[in-house]
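Researcher: Here's my situation. A collaborator sent me these components and asked whether they could plausibly form a single complex. I don't have experimental data yet, so a predicted model of the whole assembly would be a useful starting point for our discussion.
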Amino acid sequence: MLIGQYEHTIDIKKRLALPAKFRGELGDKIIITRGIEGCLAVYTEAEWKIMSDKLGALTISQAEARSFTRMILAGAMEVSLDKLGRILVPDYLKEYAGLKKNVVICGLSNRLEIWDAEKWETYKIAAEKGVDEIVSKLGGLGI
Amino acid sequence: MLIGQYEHTIDIKKRLALPAKFRGELGDKIIITRGIEGCLAVYTEAEWKIMSDKLGALTISQAEARSFTRMILAGAMEVSLDKLGRILVPDYLKEYAGLKKNVVICGLSNRLEIWDAEKWETYKIAAEKGVDEIVSKLGGLGI
DNA sequence: CACATTTATCCACATTTATCCACTACATGT
DNA sequence: ACATGTAGTGGATAAATGTGGATAAATGTG
């Protein structure tokens, strides 16, 4: 299970080291694409299969669904890890997520998310406030 | 059953010894993540499984669910106990819970909570006052 | 076809993390 | 009261990880 968060840097050659803890589970080929809220999403080949099947099952008649699937599918790129566990972040994704030097890599069970460090910080502050609130709303979650 | 409270210290290398009484039950790998009211929550692998399944079944708005799971999952870290029963507390969790040198470790049946000692003291004083009141509210539970 | 630019592979360094061992304090039992 | 054992803390050494740079292959362009 992919969990935890790590702060890494994208070097001048657009290389990004994925956390060593994740490498075993990821394999040496991953799919990277647009994520929600301005981040990037990273899937294993197996998880990507599940994801893209779900996208294919969407009611394509709706314009919104079409544009959404286009963004995700056309945005997707298969990248391989080098011997040191680094990937190359494509320009258009780097730009989409506003990635600068410092990024945060989050494990979310079945996928990773890559955030610009500053953007993550902003998002986190807002989200942390919601934790207590949601837990109490949910009652017996036992967190 | 994880019960009782202990005051321990986090050393300069961010190591924290878990109480010897808990070690047998915890095993040598645990999950540590964000908890409510600014503490940290510690689960066994089995309990974590239960927790993360509950997260998948959340019925709140999409955006809320995303931010909540990000906090809990990305906040979570699988850590292993060293030969002396110590864990390494990740920076971002240490910061989240405002942990300084002295911390309090509480057993809450199926999980542990880690509090900054000062924060715990404040919380405890307030909570102790409320005990009688809460008990009367809980009357119907047969406690 | 030659050149320039990008992309991939490889290696080296520095920092962090993990493992190991030693010391002190407290508790227990003889 | 003393010895013994267990638990918590601190430090030292070894391994792993992340980052930067250098060199070789590939790609595209004039």
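Model: Some features of this prediction you could bring to your collaborator: Chain B is about 40% helix and 30% strand. The mean pLDDT of chain B is 91.
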